[in-house]
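Input chain follows. Return structure tokens only.
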Amino acid sequence: MAAELMLAALSPERRSLFSTDNAIEVIDLIFDYYEDAGLTDLDFDDEDDYDLQAERRDAVAYVEKVLAKDREAPAFTSEEIAAMVAAEMDYEESLI
């Protein structure tokens, strides 16, 4: 479901260039970011300090950095990565 929502966030012309597997690769990178940033630890006391915009910005930067190093990575633009990260995080929030 998340992968489909992420692809739907892309323009129709560009969407056809990418597969569900490409979106899943971005999901994997988002979760790598969460792990590297220590965001996989549940700490309900810090919910007041939660900054979704900063988390999205940092996740986008992380995904861009990793994809830029991978010559075989999908050729997403920065705007597409931002849209996909936002769609995935919105999906996560909808599950709470």
